[in-house]
Design goal:
The chain has 246 residues and is an alpha/beta fold. The chain has one domain (8-238): Dihydrofolate Reductase, subunit A, CATH 3.40.430. The chain has helices at residues 34-44, 54-59, 69-77, 118-126, 142-153, 164-172; strands at 8-16, 49-53, 85-89, 109-113, 131-134, 157-160, 178-184, 211-219, 222-229. It starts with 7 loop residues before the first strand and ends in a 17-residue tail after the last strand.
């Protein structure tokens, strides 16, 4: 994609059979198999950077890193740096500087935020992150942010790992190229339980993001699906869909 100012964006999510990525109280957000966790690390080997929302990073002891040595070797064999960049999205700048990710300094950590964060929050984040980028006033301008990542940090392939509000904003902006989805044999229920794409959502069928199934495989009782996006229509109804991003 030498002439494309934007990176290739692919999303990886695991969901229950009823479409949830966590319980209503968000107490349970890890429920997939060892095969799915292997899939997560393999997808990270194909990305220059891995991105997640502030809620995901704050609530889980994750580092967004490449994992054990064998995955780092795979990255090098495929022409990537040994460790991927790590990106956290926090629209309000309320990301906890004590989050687990900041305790591991094997690769740069970038924070995308907005002017809602305020000077104090920006200063606090600048002390723990390698770069803090303000990308809009009230909501994050992801297209501008991704152009900056491509130009300044050489991010050609960007993997997003949620949560639902971040994914929803990216789908709404028409910036997702591929969806990797694991369907797990569980049902959580709950009207307030998060899904793979939250936020305002499509208000009309014409606003829906259209997908084309590229591949499907079954491992025991889980399904691993890969979709390409057929339509990246940027719906007007989504124009403020990412304002809820923490």
């Amino acid at each position: 994609m030498p002439n494309n100012p934007l990176p290739f964006v692919f999303v990886n999510m695991a969901m229950t059979a009823d479409g949830k990525i966590a319980t209503s109280n968000r107490a349970v957000s890890s429920f997939s198999s060892a095969q799915d966790r292997e899939q997560l690390l393999l997808l990270r080997t194909r990305a220059d950077a891995v991105m997640a929302g502030a809620r995901t990073v704050d609530r889980n002891r994750i580092t967004l890193g490449p994992g054990p040595a064998r995955y780092r070797r795979q990255r090098l064999q495929q022409g990537f740096a040994e460790c991927n960049l790590r990106i956290v999205v926090s629209g309000s700048g309320s990301l906890d500087p004590r989050a687990e990710i900041f305790a591991h300094r094997f690769s740069p950590i970038l924070v995308l935020t907005t002017e809602r964060a305020g000077a104090a929050a920006l200063k606090r984040l600048a002390q723990v992150a390698d770069a803090v980028r303000v990308c809009g006033e009230e909501s994050i301008d992801f297209a501008a942010a991704f152009r900056w990542l491509r130009k300044q940090w050489k991010v050609n392939r960007l993997l997003c790992e949620g949560g639902g509000e971040l994914n929803g904003a990216l789908f709404a902006a028409g910036l997702v190229n591929e969806l990797n989805l694991t369907i797990c044999p569980k049902v959580f229920g709950g009207g307030d339980a998060p899904t793979i794409a939250d936020g305002l959502g499509a208000l009309a069928l014409s606003d829906a993001t259209r997908l084309e199934l590229k591949s499907m495989r079954r491992v025991n009782d889980e399904l691993f699906l890969v979709y390409h996006l057929v339509s990246t229509h940027r719906a007007k109804s989504h124009s403020r869909s990412d304002k809820r991003l923490r």
